[in-house]
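Anyone? Bumping this.
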Amino acid sequence: MSGKPLWRKAFDEVDKRVSGPVEAGAHSDLFNDLVTVQIKLARRAQREVEKRTRRVLHAVNLPTATDVRRLSEQVASLQRQLRDLEDQRRR
Amino acid sequence: MSPSLAPGDLLNRVERDVQRALQRSRNGLRYAAGTQRPKVGRTPKDVVWRRHKSELWRYRSDARRYRPPLVIVHSLVSRSYVLDLYPGNSAVEHFLREGLDVFLLDWGVPDETDAGNTLEYYVDDGIPEAVAAACETAGTDDVNLLGYCFGGVLSLLSAARHPEMPIRNLAAMATPVDFSQMETITALVRDGRLDPEDVIEPTGNVAPDVIENGFKLLKPTAEVTQYATLWENLWNDEFMEGYQAMGQWARDHIPFPGAAFEQTVAGLVRANGLVNGTFELGGERVDLKAITRPVLNIMAERDHIVPLAAAEPLVGLVGSKEKEELRLAAGHAGLVAGRKAAKVTLPGIAGWFKAHSSAIPSHADVRMCSDADS
C-alpha cells in the first residue's frame, strides 16, 4: 500500500493528465508567438510610460528613471576604467 | 478498501496525525512569515584568488587524500550555493569527505559594470587565472576541472582555447553543447522571434526574472506540483529545510552579462557553433577537438533545462582518447543536491576523479615506509 494520502493520489492523477498537454502548449509556436509579443509589448509600454512621465517630472525639476540610469551608466563606465587600470597594474 | 485497524493502532495513528497537524501549522507559519530561511553555503572556505567580482574559494579540510585539486566552475545564470546548500546536503561537503581538495570558482553577481564582459573575459582570463591560483595554493602542477551547467561550456571553451592550461581531467556536468535541443527562451532567440536587445535591459544585462521565467515555462505545472508536495510534507522539518533551500536557489537567479549573452545567442544558440564547429572567440575558431585530456560527460536523464539530447554529443566533439559518460536518473539540480545526489550522483563523480587522481600518502603510510627503510 502506498503511503501517499488520498488527496495526493488524486492530485497526481490530474497532474499526469494535465501537465503533458500544458507543456506541449507552452512549447507550441502559438505560445512562443504570444510570449514574444508580450515581451515586446512590455518593453514598448515601459518606454512609453518613461517618455510621458519624463516631461512631467522634469517640469517640477525631478529626475526621471532615464536620468538615474544615465548616471549609473556613467558610474559603471568609471568602474570599468578602474577595473582596466587594476588589470594593467596586475600584469 | 483499507484494512481494519486494531484500537491501539488507531490510537497511534490519530496521535501521529494530531502531531503532524501541529508541526504542519508551525512550519506553515514559519514558511509564510519567512522567518526560517535556511542558511546556505556554510562549508568553511577561504578566498584564494579574486578578480573583479570573481572569486576562487578553497574549502577547508584536514582530510585531503587526492591530488590534483578539484576546481569547480560555476554557471553564469545561477548562484553557486546550489553546490553547497547546507550541511548534509552539499556536493562540496561530499567531495571533501571523499578526500578531494575542493576549489569553487564563483563569478559573483554581475551589475552594469559587467555588462561588457564577453565570453573571452571568462574563458581566456578568468578560468586560466583561477586554475593557476589553485595550482599555486595547493602546490600542484595541475588541476581537475569540473564545470556545472553553463560553467561546463566555459570550461570546455577554455580548455579548447588553452591546451597548455594544466588540466589533468575535465568533467562537464549538465552542460549543453547542442543548442538546437534547448527549449523556451533559447528557442525564442534561436528562431529569431526575439533578438538579444529584446531581453537585455537598460543595465546592459539580461534580467534575472527573464531567466527565471524562461525556466518556469519549461514545466509550467511544476510550481503547482511543488506546492502540493510542500503541503504533503509540511510537517517534516528535514523536508522543509531542503525544500526551502532549493526553492530559494530556484528563485535566486542572477543577471547574465549582455555582451556574453549576445555572443552566446549568435555563436552557440543560432549557429549551434559547438556542434557545427563554427564558434569563434577572439577572432579564432574554437575546436573542441583540441581537448585531449580525459573527459567525463555527466548527464541527468530527467533534466528539463539541459535535455539529454543537448548534452549527449559532447563525447563525439572532444579530441580525448579517454572519454566517458555518466548518465544519472536525476534532474538538473538533482545532480548535485538532494538524497539521490548523495547516494548516486556525487559518489559517481567523486569516484571518477579519485580514479583519475593520485593518492597522497597519509602520515601513517609515510611512517610505515620510513620504519621499513630503517
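Late reply, but here is one note on the structure posted above: Chain A touches chain B at residues 4-5, 8, 11, 15, 18-19, 22-23, 26-27, 32-33, 35-36, 39-40, 43, 69, 72-73, 75-76, 79-80, 83, 86 (CB under 8 Å).
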